[in-house]
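User: Structure please.
Assistant: Input sequence and predicted structure:
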Amino acid sequence: MIELIRQPWPWYVAGPLIGLVVPALLLAGNRMFGVSANLRTLCAVIAPGKVDFFHFDWRRVGGWNLAFAAGILIGAVIAAAWLAGAGDVAISDATRAALAELGIRDFTGLAPDDLFRWATLSTPLGWVVIVLGGFLVGFGAAWAGGCTSGHAIMGLASGELPSLIAVMGFFAGGLLATQLVIPLLLGVLL
């Protein structure tokens, strides 16, 4: 049984489990789901009233949001400590060849060591990329009224047109970044 839990779950198990989150939240009377909502709630708890965006009744939705954020952290610790033996990420030979052309040659583990090692991230350029990327993700989530998980899981399931538009923007931005931005960044970083 433990070995079954340590392996990655197939899409036909994990997908429906994620999908069941939406009706569970709707039955509980909560229409907010996503990581950016959790960050806003945490900021409202830590610095109430100092920034208008964080001045709201976080207690109304805060319990669920903070439990969700804590679950992400606890799940990450459990996965890193006990489920790390799942193996390398399976990617196609064509993707390996395309990434090798961009300078990524390490395909072991969950993320390429060529990009996610301290020697790369601790350079001045690495810090600029981390800070700028973090700012752009935070700004984008605030501007879009939520993050990818909130719009794609909760918003689409609720039939929200703004969520459909946001998800289409996420996909278009991801394709644009994959084809144009990432090759430029990798040319500078590697």
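Residues 117-190 form one domain.
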